[in-house]
Amino acid sequence: MDLALWIIAGLLAVAFLAGGTIKLSLSKEKLAAAPGGGWVEDFSAGAVKAIGVLEVLAAVGLILPAVLGVAPVLVPLAAVGVMLLMVGAMITHLRRREAKVIVANLAYLALAGFVAWGRFGPESFTG
């Protein structure tokens, strides 16, 4: 199970690092023009950048503490942070009636929940 947790945390980290980097590097207008990017119209440019920062921090938190062996409890906490981001994303998409996008949010939520459960519980780095 440890290997599965590493793989899932790695995949989540790649996805959130990419998503966060895109949010930080592109303007709000370019994000809005992208497929599925209409949600940015509900937020200020600063809020979109803040979401990007949170996504990058989540990506780093899913991997780096365990790899370095420094405060590995941050891994499940980062997974909980991803879960909170996904709940917020689902609320936003529900308000915009974008049901198809919610499927991806649910998948990320479930994967992050698995990492949080596994790293807080049976495959804890501190146990």
From TrEMBL:
<protein>
    <submittedName>
        <fullName>Putative membrane protein YphA (DoxX/SURF4 family)</fullName>
    </submittedName>
</protein>
<keyword id="KW-1133">Transmembrane helix</keyword>
<dbReference type="InterPro" id="IPR032808">
    <property type="entry name" value="DoxX"/>
</dbReference>
<keyword id="KW-0812">Transmembrane</keyword>
<feature type="transmembrane region" description="Helical">
    <location>
        <begin position="74"/>
        <end position="94"/>
    </location>
</feature>
<dbReference type="Pfam" id="PF13564">
    <property type="entry name" value="DoxX_2"/>
</dbReference>
<feature type="transmembrane region" description="Helical">
    <location>
        <begin position="101"/>
        <end position="120"/>
    </location>
</feature>
<feature type="transmembrane region" description="Helical">
    <location>
        <begin position="6"/>
        <end position="26"/>
    </location>
</feature>
<dbReference type="GO" id="GO:0016020">
    <property type="term" value="C:membrane"/>
</dbReference>
<keyword id="KW-0472">Membrane</keyword>
<feature type="transmembrane region" description="Helical">
    <location>
        <begin position="47"/>
        <end position="68"/>
    </location>
</feature>
